[in-house]
Specification:
With 298 residues, the protein is mainly α. It has one domain. Helices cover 78% and strands 0% of the residues. It contains 13 helices and no strands. Helix 2 packs antiparallel against helix 10 and helix 7 runs antiparallel to helix 13. The longest helix is centred in the C-terminal third of the chain and has 29 residues. The chain starts with a helix and ends in a 12-residue tail after the last helix.
Length: 298
């Protein structure tokens, strides 16, 4: 399979993994777990799975001290910070508006990648980004009534942090195995939440079986499949294209919510989903045919 097509499908699989996060979080919250416990468990369990897999495959986990510092910052500050801000935003805003604000990050990634000289922002990418953005608004159907600034700033802050995380990750992936990258990111994020939970007393040890199963599910699907898949796909097609294709995540979330939670899809959401999907197809069929120099082989 051509690298560009392979990378695109990997990003779709990654988006499918990320799309399960909201549903699994609902199950975990219903079982009595709090956000600190969920996030600490999510990242530490994922790191353990990755470490065992790397050991079985005989892949070395060691990296240079400089790379280790970067990866720990990506996990503890980047992914950890984004997760906390996003969770804080949900307390103030509706889920749909929270998702809409977070998905400003593909545009931010495109701007950062161009400013840093990492990518060329083509007309095809601009068209795909615009179409996906319109589809996202229709799909989420966000209401701006009673919007609280604290929630807006929290989620926009999450989008900014996530954008920087992706651009930095795209640079680091040139010389680091995506599996090893994911291990360091997950471990450092989990360690940060564990330390915070112990210091604040928010860490819960007594969680029901259903709660722990939900946390393990979060560690496997949106974390292992989601994070690792995004790194693998981004290495093949670049940060901007990967971010735009990832905008399929809300569409997959809506579909899964319908199947698993019995939520209904409105006609407007159906149109939004179709528009969102068309934007990703445009990017895949008419985007940059040549792979970028900053992206290396897996």
């Amino acid at each position: 399979m051509h690298d560009k097509n392979k990378g695109a499908w990997i990003i779709v699989a990654s988006a499918s993994g990320f799309a399960t996060l909201g549903i699994l979080l609902k199950y975990a919250f219903a079982a009595g777990a709090n956000i600190c416990t969920i996030l600490a468990g999510r990242f530490l369990i994922a790191a353990l799975f990755l470490l065992l897999y790397l050991r079985l495959r005989g892949i070395r986990c060691s990296v240079s001290l400089r790379t280790a510092r970067h990866l720990f910052l990506m996990g503890a500050v980047g992914y950890g910070g984004m997760s906390m801000l996003f969770a804080n935003g949900i307390h103030y805003l509706s889920a749909s508006l929270t998702g809409l604000l977070l998905y400003t990050y593909p545009a931010l990634v495109a701007v950062l990648a161009v400013l840093l000289g990492d990518e060329r922002f083509t007309a095809q990418k601009a068209l795909a980004l615009a179409i996906c953005s319109v589809g996202l608004v229709l799909l989420l159907g966000a209401s701006f009534q009673g919007v609280k600034p604290a929630g807006v700033f929290s989620v926009l802050g999450a989008a900014v942090i996530y954008s920087c995380y992706i651009v930095v990750g795209n640079k680091i992936l040139k010389n680091t195995d995506p599996l090893v990258t994911s291990l360091y990111v997950c471990f450092s994020a989990g360690l940060a939440f564990l330390a915070y939970g112990l210091a604040s007393g928010e860490l819960q040890w007594r969680v029901s079986t259903a709660g722990w199963l939900s946390i393990v599910g979060i560690a496997v699907f949106p974390t292992l499949f989601g994070v690792l898949g995004f790194f693998l796909g981004m290495r093949l097609i670049g940060a901007t294209s990967a971010s735009i294709i990832s905008m399929l995540e809300p569409l997959i979330t809506v579909l899964l919510s319908t199947l698993l939670l019995g939520e209904r899809i409105t006609a407007l959401q159906g149109v939004g989903g179709a528009v969102l999907l068309s934007g990703a197809i445009i990017l895949q069929l008419w985007g940059d045919g040549a792979r970028r120099e900053t992206v290396t082989e897996v």
